[in-house]
Amino acid sequence: MSQATTPHVDAHAAHGHDDHHAVYTEAPAGFVPHKVAHHFDNPVQESATLKFAFWLFMATEIMLFGGMFAGYFIFHTFYPETFKAGGHELNWKLGAVNTTILLFSSFTMALGVRSAQTSKRGPMLGLMAVTILCGFGFLIVKYFEYSAKIEHGLLPGHLFQGHGEIAAVPHIATFFSIYWTMTGIHGLHVIIGMALIAWAMKGAAAGRYHAGYNVPVDLVGIYWHLVDLIWIFLFPLLYLVP
Amino acid sequence: MASQPAHAPAGHGHAEHKHHVCSIALFTKVFLALIVLTAITVWSSRMDFGSLNMPIAMLIASIKATLVMTFFMHLKYDTAMNQITMISSFLFLALLFLFTLGDLTTRAKTDHLNTQVAPMSMDFKERGYESWLIHAVRGTGHVKNEHGGSTPVHTPEPPATKPAETKGTTTK
Q1: What is the ipTM of this complex?
Q2: Distance (Å) from the alpha carbon of A46 to chain B's nearest alpha carbon
Q3: Which of A15, A203, B77, B124 sits at a 20 to 30 Å CA gap from A240?
Q4: Could A172 and B92 be called an inter-chain contact, meaning their C-beta atoms sit closer than 8 Å?
């Protein structure tokens, strides 16, 4: 490919007359053709670059959560009984409900991306809207969960104010530090993911995403699936402490 | 870039259309599999497989994660470069876990200070570590400890395991 595109690269080195060389992707009737950014030679190169960059970002996300999971395993190894006791304080039913909500939202998002690939604007918007609603559902469940934890003083580190049996468990504040940090940063990703889907819906409503061009929907979908992926590990580790 | 033609499915009209479009049936099957695996996760957490509890839970979660990445994230139909990028992140993660676990599981053998304590339940103070970090992590602020009242503080408990062996060496 590089040999074929060399002349274009030279042409762009001159700057200033990008519009003469503007490349548009095909769009089905009723959709807006995508203009390839001027620093790319063709739509394939553009989407391949965007996707590669996004997968690199996904790799950094795996490392971000991976570090926290390593911390979890270290302290779980040190204090397995503490983690068991801490896990019993969490409501595993709410955790299971949230797991189901996130799995379902991943399903609807995957179908939403499929609708973009098949140029179906209505289903695309509807499915992404359902995905965002699932995100809200997840956050509402989380809100009730967090409220109960705050009420019982099950807070991280020195903030821990728990009393009764749970306060007598050694190192229990460490468990709640891990619980709040990991679910908190995961929750932040849920919120960011919902905002990204809303942004993708804006473009979808304008008809910018279709069979000829749907990279943004695709990438937002991948981000949302990552949120699901992290939760798949968080749920058994925190709520059903093995 | 050499792999570009490989994932352009034949029979699609659009020139730019290089996406593999999964069927709704496939996505539905993946979703149902994920729900079933979640149920198995909950069920297995109520069983006691002893030391296999954690490996089993992680195995099920890994299968679920693989399903999500393979189909929902379309990684199966993506370029080799993107596949390697994602897989490499897990390889680096494996390195992190490998060395961490290697450290945790061999401390009792390598650290003579630790020979009297069970390898999995070491007490930092017991081993002479007194850094602020340990206190922060354990929630045992020594300053607040003296006042007692306002903030509940956990006093370091005697080593939980092997009390007979470690009795003579408790705090101070």
Answers
A1: 0.88
A2: 11
A3: B124
A4: no
